[in-house]
Structures are given as C-alpha cells and as structure tokens.
TrEMBL record:
Domain Acyl-CoA dehydrogenase/oxidase C-terminal: 233-382
Entry keywords, A to Z: FAD, Flavoprotein, Oxidoreductase
Acyl-CoA oxidase/dehydrogenase middle domain: residues covered: 119-213
GO molecular function: acyl-CoA dehydrogenase activity; flavin adenine dinucleotide binding
Species this protein is from: Neoroseomonas eburnea
Gene3D superfamilies reported in the protein's UniProt record: Acyl-CoA dehydrogenase/oxidase, N-terminal domain (1.10.540.10), Butyryl-CoA Dehydrogenase, subunit A, domain 2 (2.40.110.10), Butyryl-CoA Dehydrogenase, subunit A, domain 3 (1.20.140.10)
Record's protein name: 3-sulfinopropanoyl-CoA desulfinase
UniProt keyword annotation of Flavoprotein present: yes
Amino acid sequence: MHGLTEAEARLRDRAREVAQEAAAQAAATDRSEQYPWPMVRRMTEAGFLGLTVPKEWGGAGGSYFDAVLVIEEFAKACAVCGRIAVEANMGAIGAIMAYGTEAQKRIAAELVLAGDKPAILITEPEAGSAATEMRTRAVRRGDEWVIDGDKTWITGGGVSRLHLIFARAVEDGEEKGIGGFIVVRDGEGMPAGMTAERIPSMGLRGMPEANVAMRGLVVPDAMVLRPPGGWARGFGRLMDAYNGQRVGAATVALGLAAGAYGHALERAQTRRQFGRPIAEFQGLAWMLADMSIEIEASRALVWRAARSAGPNGFPDRLAAAQAKVMAADMAIRVTNNALQVWGAAGYSRDNPMERYVRDARMFAIAGGTAQVLRTQVAEQILGRKLPQTRDGFMRLAAEQARAAAE
Ligand SMILES: CC(C)(COP(=O)(O)OP(=O)(O)OC[C@H]1O[C@@H](n2cnc3c(N)ncnc32)[C@H](O)[C@@H]1OP(=O)(O)O)[C@@H](O)C(=O)NCCC(=O)NCCSC(=O)CCS(=O)O
Ligand SMILES: Cc1cc2nc3c(=O)[nH]c(=O)nc-3n(C[C@H](O)[C@H](O)[C@H](O)COP(=O)(O)OP(=O)(O)OC[C@H]3O[C@@H](n4cnc5c(N)ncnc54)[C@H](O)[C@@H]3O)c2cc1C
C-alpha cells in the first residue's frame, strides 16, 4: 500500500496491532452471538471510537480517510469490530457533529468517546429501498415530539445508547418532511415508548440486528436534528451524512475480502497435493491473482471516496455509491473463492473461512442494495433523476412542463 503520510501509516499500524486482539476473539464472538464488549473497551481506550469527532469535542479530529484505515484493519480480523468502528465514526455521529446544536454535539461526542456505537433508524418493514416511503411519524406537541412507528434491521438495537431516528415531522397537523430525532438510552433497558427485538442473522452474529418499535416515544424539541435547508430538504441532507457510512460499509467489505485473501494465500503455499503446493496449480494461482486485483481496485475506490470528504464535509455521493457497489460484490466473490482454496477445511466451522463468507453477504443489501446503488450511480453519471415509481416519469415530465411554462 502506498500514498499514506507518516501519520496515516502510524495510525494504520496501531490499528493493525490492536486488531490482532480482535482476531483472537472473533470466532468466540460469532459463536456466542454476544456483542464484544471487552474488545469495544480496548478500541475505545485506543481512541478508535470517535476518531472523527472534532478536537473541540474531545475527539481526535481525524478524517474519514483515517477512519477507513482503522476500519479495514479491524474488518480483516473481526468484521463486527469493523462495523463498530464504522458507526462510532460515521453515519449518525457524523450527522450530529455536522448539523447538531452545541448540546446535541456534546451529548453525542461524550457517548461515542465512552464506547457507544450509535444506531441509525431508517428502514421500515414496508420501506426498505424505498426509504422515502417511511411511515414513522413525529408529531409536535408543544416543546416535544411524539414518535410512533416501526423500524427494522436496526444494527445495535438494544445495545446502542445514541439513536438517530428518521421520521416524518408533523407540525400543526401538516407534514413538513423527513427529519432526524435523537434519543438516548440511559439505563439498562430501552427508553419508555421504545422496544427492541433481536433478529437472528446469517453473519456478523456478534452484532445485534433488531426490530425497533416506537409507541408514544417522547423526544424534546431540543433533541431534533435540524439540517440546513429546512424540513423539505431534511432527508437529502441526512443522506449526505449517510454517504460517510456507505464508505464505512464498503471498507468493512474490503477488509473482510482482504482478510480471507490473506488466509487463502498462506494456505495455497502450505497445502500440498500431487506432491506440490496447491498454489502451483494454475486454476488456483489465477484465482488468487484475481482476488488481489479486485481487492486493490476496491481499495482504490474506497480511498478515493473517503478522501472526497472535505475537512468538515461528507464523502461524495457518487464516489461513495461506486465504492460500496464494487466492494460489496467483490467481497462476496473473494471470500467465496478464498474458502474454495481451503477445500473441505474451509467449510468447517472450526475455520474462519466460512465466517468470512457469511459476514460478507450483508454488504450488497444493507446501506442501499447493490441494485439501488447502481441506479444512484446511473443518476449521477447521467445527471438526471431516474424515478423508480410507476408514475415517476409522468410526474417528472409534468414538473418540467410546468417549469418551462413559468
Ligand atoms: C434515496 C432513495 C430512498 C430513493 O428514494 P426517492 O426516489 O424517493 O428519493 P430521491 O428523490 O432520489 O431522493 C430524495 C432526496 O434525497 C437526496 N438523496 C438521496 N440519496 C442521497 C445521497 N446518497 N446523498 C445525498 N442526497 C441524497 C436526493 O437528492 C433528494 O434530495 P432533494 O429532496 O432533492 O434535496 C433510494 O435511492 C435509497 O438510497 N435507498 C436506500 C436506502 C438506504 O440506504 N438505507 C440505509 C439504511 S441504514 C443501513 O442500512 C445501515 C447498514 S450499515 O451501514 O452497514
Ligand atoms: C445486516 C443488516 C444491517 C442493517 N442495518 C440497518 C440499520 O442499522 N439501519 C437501518 O435503517 N437499516 C438497516 N438495514 C436495512 C437495509 O438498509 C435494507 O435492508 C436495505 O435498504 C434494503 O431494504 P429491504 O431489505 O427492505 O429490501 P427491498 O427494498 O425489499 O429489496 C428487495 C430486493 O429488491 C431490489 N429492489 C428494490 N427496489 C429496487 C429498485 N428500485 N431497482 C432495482 N432493484 C430494486 C433490491 O435490490 C433487493 O434485491 C440493515 C440490513 C441488514 C441486512
């Protein structure tokens, strides 16, 4: 790897060192399906949670690129730890540090720097890819808002303390747009009006995924996250921040692929059949060559996307989607081929290869599916909206005709 400053290389090396401890507990975390609290404490002490929090709020003031260097090292060893590093540096915490009030920033920074991995609540049972069709409503009642709705597949549900909830804001009986609502879980249980029920998942089993129900959840007005541009632009500005997390998810996929590839490379040179190392068989040598090419190409896109964020900005939307699509699809292929290099041994649950395969599967679904993000890439390169609803193009044409007539 090249193109790192001395400080960046030092940060990556420090992350690599701590990630050895993450590797040692990854199998146990997968088997127990328990959130890896001891490792979270270790990562917190090392300053990897809240790395991107500005110095004035107690963080290291690191860049998205710094976070990416750390996330890849953890994801190679323990993808759950990699995802913790994503959400403790990007997504909800990024949105709050950019758009929040002083009080909101202080609360969020303190939580993350003390080891919390925030949760972001966007998806609903009937609004997955079509996230703008969400039904969760926040109705204003004086100085507070009352939230009702159901979210699903919420990473960290029941473990996270800081929650950023996307909901439709209703004021004076009128719907204003989609906004962000901050809720903090203080004690052991969930806040009044909020429940979390775990969903059993295929991979990343140490990370709880949950259905979160909100019934009369009260949020003070002071905890409403108001991005610039008003309610009507709320969803878009929150998604600006979410582009950071897309780069983070791409990095976990990259790290998983790189970790599996490392194991495959070693195995190919030590396992012998027909009297010689299996690496000498061209079928496997080319498989390893393709893995290395795809990993390097993905890393280039991930780095480009992370570096596209200005000092106080978020990664570019197009670059983030391109990196995520490439890394997610690549990780499925590479982890699968790495298991193939291991033969039957790779299929055993006593071996990390099957965990890499299970863990890699989610990234073409979560954070925008591979299909939806391809449409986003197409929209950006074509410079035009590609509506996904049946009547979308008719509405667009009507809007354009109206604008031309004015
Ligand atoms: C955006 C979609 C939900 C498509 O819905 P629509 O067609 O109804 O919406 P648009 O008109 O395209 O967008 C509305 C509004 O938002 C702006 N926008 C959309 N995406 C972005 C973006 N990436 N960056 C910046 N701005 C964005 C868009 O320009 C419009 O703005 P204006 O109103 O014009 O100002 C759909 O394409 C989509 O993204 N679906 C995926 C939903 C998703 O990613 N969910 C993630 C849930 S969290 C998660 O999975 C965590 C997992 S993890 O991190 O491992
Ligand atoms: C492990 C995991 C963690 C997650 N974490 C979170 C989280 O923390 N917070 C959160 O809010 N959400 C989270 N999600 C939810 C995730 O964002 C959604 O699963 C994702 O946006 C897709 O929604 P869906 O699953 O409802 O699929 P659907 O939208 O129902 O899609 C089903 C299929 O149809 C395809 N499809 C849908 N629309 C189109 C289209 N317009 N064009 C082409 N194909 C289309 C999709 O690509 C997919 O293959 C997580 C999901 C997983 C698996």
